[in-house]
Amino acid sequence: MNCRHCGTPLAHTFLDLGSAPPSNAYLSADDLNRPELYYPLKVKVCDHCWLVQTENYAQVEELFHPDYAYFSSTSSSWLRHAAQYSQDMIARLDLGKESLVIEVACNDGYLLKNFVVANIPCLGIEPTVSTASAAEQLGIPVLREFFSEQLGKQLMAQGKQADLIVGNNVYAHVPDINDFTRGLKAALKPGGTITLESPHLLRLIKHNQFDTIYHEHFSYLSLGTISRIFQTAGLRIWHVEQFATHGGSLRVFGCHGDDQRENTSAVKNLLAEEVQCGLQVIDAYQGFQDRTDRVKNDLLAFLIEQKKAGKKVAGYGAAAKGNTLLNYAGVKPDLLPFVSDAATSKQGKFMPGSRIPILAPSALAEYNPDFVLILPWNIAQEIRGQLSGLSVRGTEFVSAVPSLEIV
Ligand SMILES: [Zn+2]
Fold this sequence. Notes:
Elements: E1 12-20, E2 39-45, E3 52-54, H1 76-92, E4 101-104, H2 113-117, E5 122-125, H3 129-136, E6 142-143, H4 149-157, E7 162-168, H5 177-187, E8 188-199, H6 201-206, E9 219-220, H7 223-232, E10 235-243, E11 249-256, H8 265-276, H9 288-308, E12 313-316, H10 320-329, E13 339-340, E14 358-359, H11 362-367, E15 371-374, H12 380-386, H13 388-392, E16 396-399, E17 405-406
Parallel strand pairs: 4-5, 4-7, 5-6, 7-8, 12-13, 12-15, 13-14, 15-16
Antiparallel strand pairs: 1-2, 2-3, 3-9, 8-11, 10-11, 16-17
Helix pairs in contact: 4-5
């Protein structure tokens, strides 16, 4: 296989997680009588442009289920993050009723609704039917398509170039990252701004976040690599900010290559930090498999120990990262009888691979567990707050990443 960005043959494995079903292929009760499709889950690193990327495999198109169940609006901290961002950008870019804001992968309208309220014209792009419908109900026009160079050029031809293009947690999920980036170039007005948020590869490596790896997450990105990809498409990263979301995310600010804005010192500093941490030599990428295996083994040892001691453990948060962790560790309902989740669209279904049932949060109070394993560790404190009633009754909360601990 050759690098998806620069075409260099990929000689190095970053992590091999064996095989797993797609992380969003939740099962209905009927599905339990059927076989599941498992795909290899192996991640390579390019020693030329340092793009960390999932290995290619057959039938990749089957990953994208039309009933993909994740609704962004279920996380209150993410909603606050989106509202704050919208206010900042309206002020910073002086957006008004003559402007256009495009969000690629607008999900259920969790972000663009802030621009609707401010009377700023916007357009969402979202191929997933259920979330696109939710966005439309908030008054957001939605194109139900995948974003691509072709779509970017179509928007340009229709005079719909944007003052601001937003992409939150979409860039890393794009199979053809070069084509997508050329689409951003085409859909951006001269003088316009692109902001993309993605988990930061540096944090993934530093904090053992191997469970953020799944098939639909094609790329694991550093600022250095994003800058290269932008440059190849005639764009430039002129500013960057870092956030705690998803365990450590980057918000990159892009513009046309010939834009008047100068690069900020934040760009220079973070590029230097990445080089200093070794992201442009192969050594930084080796040893990650051993650290991943340690996290997996510690979780299994904990669950087996509780089982032997007659203690009750339940899970919380049926998110993609939970599926990666549970499937790599081989955890099944005998060790973790159910996972609770607030999203009604997932309740009554089963986690792919592990086939652990997903129940409403009320099931936790009935079960009265000794421990709750929080799978989305990035919002552990928020979840702890929501489940404070259980703490009063003596339940303890644990998470497995970056290492097994009481939270
Ligand atoms: Zn490459």
